[in-house]
Amino acid sequence: MAKQLTNHFGSTVPDRAEFSHFTVSERRASGVRQIDLMLAVQGRLRRLGLSKRTETAYTGWIVRFLRAFPGRHPIRLGKGEVEAFLTALASRDRVAAATQNQALAALLFLFREVLGQQLPWMEGIKRAKRPARLPEVLSREEVLSVLSRMKGVDRLVASLLYGSGLRLLEGLRIRNRDVDLIRCELIVRGGKGSKERRTMIPRGLADALAAQRDVSFRLHQEDLDCGFGEVWLPDVLARKYRSASREPGWQYLFPARKRSVDPRGSKVFRHHWSESSVQRAVKQAVFQSGIIKPATCHTFRHSFATHLLESGYDIRTVQELLGHSDVSTTQIYTHVLNRGASAVRNPLDASSPMAR
After folding, report:
1. Residue limits of the Core-binding (CB) domain (predicted)?
2. Are 209 and 163 in contact (CB under 8 A)?
């Protein structure tokens, strides 16, 4: 496998060895230019303020696209090559529809944002149709059973996922300043689509969250005493409030156990609690509870929405709490309510003597 470089954005770019099978003239015309192109892609992603995950995904797909057509600069590629690449993903690699659409989004970004081409044929490429699936939902008893088998920070994070309807990263990225324990409210920043919203905090978690905030403050003070104490901030905030990264309010409510080097630079920060830690704890607790549903961290968010609708809250309120832009996204939870198929009396039960 060809070597890969890691640039100062923390993402991989193709090494010149990737193009070693080219002639000297081809390497000059293609290899070096493609490396420069990838740096331009990453630079554009950064200027637009897209997330690190989006940057990693897009650069990965663009590199794969370039490898599929070696020796050819993307400016010489067109609809046929893009469709052939996406077709190969579907037929040969058998990737999911969502993955195909992510690859297409990355190529759209390459042609539009980096190469500056407004190509009408790109609009004509059909996106893969994602299969419609109902969300997996736990009952209230199942939620409590899972949470009771967890402990520490993992349990507190999982409790917030259910009690506040959060996505996992939204819970882990909570800053101390965004928690209002008096009003039991939480501001979710940098959610899906870079939207902000306000949601509720279970009053039963207030004391545990206050204790967790004290832990965050203590770790921050220890970092300051050791000459560290900065936390990552979005570029706009970092430029506007230059001292904010060292303030207690901007520190993560759930800080990581250890400091680490920022993947986009060389600064040493204390990141937030590990995703994998919570995911492993939830998986183990689900297994110990004897639940055979494919429940994950995101299942808590699905259960939050469904249980609110079951309790009679209107769908617009649930939409706002979840941060959905369109109410049609929230409406999927109405299909899993107990008022649906389970509320209809089965005709066999109605006619059977045993049902009387």
Report:
1. 35-115
2. no
